[in-house]
Amino acid sequence: MTDLRVDPFRRVAAGLLIVSSLAVASCDERLSDITGPSPNLQPTLSSISTEIFETTDLAGRTSCVTCHTNVGHPPAGNLNLAGDPYAALVDVPSAQRPGAVLVIPGDPESSYLVRKLEGRDINGLRMPRNGPPYLTDGQITVIRRWIEIGAPRD
């Protein structure tokens, strides 16, 4: 058994571990406070698919699959979010913007999906096209966090 009084490095490391654990826990709590009209939204693809792509939210923004599906019509922007959204988004070139990639794992700033949602440096209109209401800053923050953590398939 190691005595923490003898090894100050271990004491500092243990303290940092506790502080970082508390910081992560508080971030998750604040996340639920910022998601607004999608109170169950989490930074996972399954949550984003359910709460954003497939659901009309409490603010009245219609679901993304209203336009981005191949049911009854070709999907808008050739983007079908109703099937396998991971395959439709991650490392996929934009049909509208040559050289742009929809979701670049770890890089929300360069991901064209985020730019379309924020309405900055894009071709065409800001998404969702039927807005306002557009996605809230909190909803976009959750999507950004999913991309930041590597856009995992879950």
Helix content: 25-40%
Total number of domains: 2
Distance between the termini: 39 Å
Number of E strands: 0
Q: Main sheet?
A: none
- Overall spatial form: globular
Class computed from helices, strands and strand pairing: mainly alpha
State the helix count: 5
Written account of the structure:
The protein is an all-alpha fold. It folds into 2 domains: 1-34; 37-148, no CATH class. 39% of the residues lie in helices and 0% in strands. The chain contains 5 helices and no strands. The longest helix is centred in the first third of the chain and has 27 residues, at 8-34.
What are the salient characteristics of this protein?
single chain; 154 residues; mainly alpha; 5 helices; globular
Furnish the topology, listing elements before pairings.
Elements: H1 8-34, H2 45-53, H3 85-89, H4 112-118, H5 137-148
Quick recap of the structure?
The chain has 154 residues and is mainly alpha-helical. The protein contains 5 helices and no strands.
